[in-house]
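Appendix B. Chain record.
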Amino acid sequence: MQKTELFNIQEDNWKPHPTSPGVYVQPILSGNEGLGFKNMFVKIEPGGEILPHTHDVTEVFYFIEGAGSVLVNGERKECRAGTVVVAPAGIEHGVKNETREVVYLLANFEAD
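Structure tokens predicted for this chain:
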């Protein structure tokens, strides 16, 4: 039987995203736990951007705090805390922080 775990954003555990400027991540589940998904906390500094990209799996991300410009299906839309964005497999998507506040996301992916 698996145990219940709690995860919180830890300000000293951010790792720079390898390809997106001003973006930092904190992995939560790697996908190797057998639960069918993986996820991470994402921090986007003011002026930072998750560059447009695609995945082989669906990504669902939730705006915990802040606001940003989201690219999905070739359209840019403004999103803010409380918004959920679904980016199906193979669909280009990205997030830009054009505000003066940090954006925090919870990104969830189907496990490979």
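Further analysis of this model is presented in Appendix C.
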